[in-house]
Design a protein that fits this description.
Distance between the termini: 46 Å
Shape: globular
Strand content: 5-15%
Strand order of the largest sheet: 2-8-7-6-5-3-4
Radius of gyration: 20 Å
Largest sheet: 7 strands, mixed
C-alpha cells in the first residue's frame, strides 16, 4: 500500500471534511506556543555541533531529569517521546501473548503499541462520568495481564482519578503486574489534584511514571519523553535503550527549559485559563464538556465532530461523533465557539 495520500484522505485523517479549508489543527493537543527564546538559543547552539554523535547511551539527560524530580539517575529512562518510552516498556515488561489493561478510549498509542509488540489489548470502558473505572480495571487483571495503564489526567476526557482511588487501586494490583501511570499532562493539573509520584514509587515498586516534554514544555517536535520508577524496574526497560537515540539538541532544550520554568509556568497558566473560559462558553451553548485538567477539552457527540469539520477545524474525532480539541490559542478557541453558533447541539451541561 502506498504511503502517499491524496488531499481528501489527508483531510479525513486530520478530522476535516473533503473540500473544507482547514483553519486550525487542534487534533494533537499541542502547545500553541513556540519554544521560549532561551530554549531556542540553547537548541541552536547544539545544532551547530550536529556533525558529532550524541551519547551512545544517554547518561546526561537522565541525570538532569533525575536531579530535577528528586530521584537517582538509575531510576530514569528516556526515549523518543512518551510513546517511545512506552514502546520500550511494552517490549521489556510485557510480550507476545500477554495482556495490557487500560481505560477506553485512551491515547491511541497504547492499542497501536500493543499490536506492534504482540500484546493483547484489554480495553475497559470508562464510567458514566468519563473517568477510568478502576474497579472494573482491577477485575480485568488476570494471569495473562503483564501491564496496566492509568492516565492521570486521562486522555481524551481530561478527567483526573481521585488520589484516594488511585492509591487503593495500586494497593490491590498484584505486585507482579507493572502499572504505567501516564502523566503526560501533569503540568496542567491544579494543586488540589496533584499527587506526589515519589511517595507512590517508594511504596509500589511495580509502578512506573511516564512523562513527556511534548505538552507543557512545547517540545513535541524534538521527541523527548521519560519514565521513572524503582531502579530494578527501570533497569529492565533500559535494556532496549536505542544507541544514539537522544539528540544533543534534546538535552540542551531540556536543560534550558528547566532553567526557564517560571516562564513556562506562566504559559501553562495562560493555557489553563483559556481552557476554562472556553469550557464555560461551550457549556452555555449546550455542549456537555466535562471539566478538564489537561491542555484539551473533550466535547461529547453526536454532532460535535461534524460541526468542527464544517468550520475547518481539525480535531481528534471518535466513532460516536465526539471530539477532543487542543486549547490555548485565543483565535482557535473563538473559531470553536463560532462552529456551534449556527448549529447549537442543546445538551445539558456536565459538572
Amino acid at each position: 500500500m502506498s504511503v502517499l495520500l491524496d488531499d481528501d484522505a489527508r483531510s479525513a485523517r486530520r478530522g476535516r471534511l473533503p473540500g473544507t479549508r482547514q483553519r486550525f489543527d487542534l487534533s494533537l493537543s499541542e502547545n500553541p506556543f513556540p519554544p521560549l527564546p532561551s530554549v531556542l538559543l540553547a537548541m541552536n547552539a547544539a545544532l551547530a555541533q550536529v556533525n558529532r554523535y550524541p551519547e551512545f547511551r544517554p547518561r546526561e539527560l537522565p541525570t538532569v531529569i533525575a536531579q530535577h524530580i528528586g530521584v537517582r539517575a538509575d531510576q530514569v529512562v528516556v526515549g523518543a517521546g512518551a510513546t517511545g518510552v512506552a514502546l520500550q516498556i511494552l517490549q521489556t515488561l510485557a510480550g507476545p501473548g500477554s495482556d495490557i489493561v487500560y481505560g477506553a478510549p485512551t491515547f491511541d498509542g497504547y492499542p497501536i503499541l500493543a499490536e506492534m509488540t504482540g500484546v493483547q489489548a484489554v480495553p475497559v470502558p470508562l464510567d458514566a462520568t468519563g473517568n477510568q473505572d478502576l474497579s472494573a480495571m482491577q477485575r480485568a487483571i488476570d494471569q495473562r495481564t503483564a501491564l496496566v495503564v492509568v492516565c492521570r489526567p486521562h486522555n481524551p476526557t481530561g478527567t483526573v482519578v481521585p488520589a484516594s482511588e488511585l492509591k487503593t487501586f495500586l494497593s490491590r494490583v498484584p505486585g507482579r503486574v507493572p502499572v504505567i501511570l501516564d502523566e503526560a499532562y501533569v503540568e496542567f493539573v491544579g494543586a488540589a489534584e496533584y499527587l506526589d509520584p515519589l511517595a507512590l514509587i517508594d511504596k509500589h515498586p511495580n509502578l512506573v511514571v511516564l512523562r513527556t516534554f511534548s505538552k507543557a514544555y512545547g517540545l513535541a517536535g524534538l521527541r523527548i519523553g521519560y519514565a521513572f520508577g524503582s531502579s530494578e524496574l527501570i533497569a529492565r526497560v533500559r535494556r532496549l535503550q536505542l544507541p544514539f537515540g537522544v539528540s544533543s539538541a534534546a538535552v540542551a532544550a531540556v536543560c534550558a527549559s528547566y532553567a526557564a520554568e517560571p516562564e513556562l509556568a506562566a504559559r501553562t497558566m495562560r493555557i489553563t485559563a483559556e481552557r476554562d473560559s472556553l469550557r464555560e462558553a461551550l457549556l452555555h451553548r449546550g455542549i456537555a464538556v466535562p471539566p478538564s485538567h489537561a491542555n484539551f477539552l473533550y466535547l461529547p457527540g453526536p454532532g460535535v465532530a461534524t460541526a468542527l469539520r464544517r468550520a475547518g477545524i481539525a480535531a481528534k474525532c471518535y466513532p460516536d461523533g465526539s471530539a477532543r480539541i487542543a486549547v490555548g490559542d485565543p483565535k482557535a478557541d473563538h473559531a470553536v465557539l463560532q462552529a456551534f453558533e449556527a448549529h447549537p447541539l442543546g445538551r445539558p451541561p456536565i459538572g
